[in-house]
Amino acid sequence: MQILDWYELQVLAAVRRSGSIAGAARLLGVDQTTVSRRLARLQEAAGMDLLVRGPGRRLSLTALGEELAVRAQRMEAESEAAAALLGERHGAVAGTVRLTAVPVLVNRLLAPAAGPLLAAHPDLALELVPENRDLSLTRREADLALRLARPVTGGSEVKARRIGTLSYKVYERRSGTHSEGWVLYEEAMAHLPHARWLARQARRPGEAAAGLHVGDAETAQEAVASGTGRSILPVQVAEGDARLRAVERAWEEALPEREIWLLSHARQPNAAAIGAVSVWLETLFSA
C-alpha cells in the first residue's frame, strides 16, 4: 500500500481552501514551485490525476482529489483536537488565549457561548477582542483570529483554515411598527458582499432606503430591532434575537454568504490551550 506524505496532503488541502496554487503557496508560506512539486509527488504516489485544468486554465480537484483534501482537513482538525486532549490529560489547558473577531461575532455569538469552554478548562482565560480592524498575529496582537474572507497575508508564520460559512437572511422587527426601507452600510463598508447586496436591493423598483447607514452588523441588528428598517444579518447571530423575524420570500438576487477562516500562529507557545479554543470554535461554527 502506498504511504502518502502528510505534508503533501496538507498542500492539497491548501489548494482546496484557496482555489489555486498561488493561494495555497500564500497560506503555507512557501513559493509556488514548492507547491507544484509537492502536488506532482502526491499525484505520482496516487497513480492518477488529483487536479485538472479547466477552461481558462482554471484549477479544480478531481473527485479523488476532493476526497483526499477533505480527509486531510479532517486530519488537521483531529490533530488539534488530539493536542487539546493531551493537554487536558496533563492539566496543561491553562493560560490566556487572545481571540479577535468582528464585533458582531464576539458580542453576539462567542461571548454567550464561552461558558461551557471555560467550565471545562478552569485554568483557561479567554480574551475576546471585538475589532473590525485585522489585528496582526505576526506581531502577537492576538493568538487566534476569525476572518470573514480568505486571508492573503501572513506567510509561514500564520496557519489558516476555513471552519465554516456565515449565512445571511433578511430580518425585520418581529412586533410593532417598522419601516419597509433598507438599513444600509456606510461608504467605507461598501466593498463587503452584504453591503453590496443591500445597496443593489435598495435601488430596485418599489424598494427604498431607510435613510440610516451603519458601520457594522451589530449596529444594523439594533436598528432593525428598533423598527428603523430591514437589513440582512448573519443567521448565526440573528436567529437568537427574539426581537427579530426573518423575511421569508424569494429575493431577485441570491443572499450572500461569507467564509469563516481561523488564523493561528504556526508556532504556539501554549499549544494545548490554543488547541482547546480552536476545537471549540470549529464545533461552534459547524453547529
From TrEMBL:
Q: Origin, by domain of life?
A: Bacteria
Keyword Kinase annotated: no
Instruction: Give any single GO term for biological process.
Output: DNA-templated transcription
Q: Name one Pfam family in it.
A: HTH_1
HTH lysR-type domain location is 4-62
Q: Which GO terms describe its molecular function?
A: DNA-binding transcription factor activity; sequence-specific DNA binding
UniProtKB keywords: DNA-binding, Transcription, Transcription regulation
Q: Which family does it belong to?
A: Belongs to the LysR transcriptional regulatory family.
What is the name of this protein? LysR family transcriptional regulator
Question: What organism does the record attribute this protein to?
Answer: Nisaea acidiphila
Tell me the lineage of the source organism: Bacteria, Pseudomonadati, Pseudomonadota, Alphaproteobacteria, Rhodospirillales
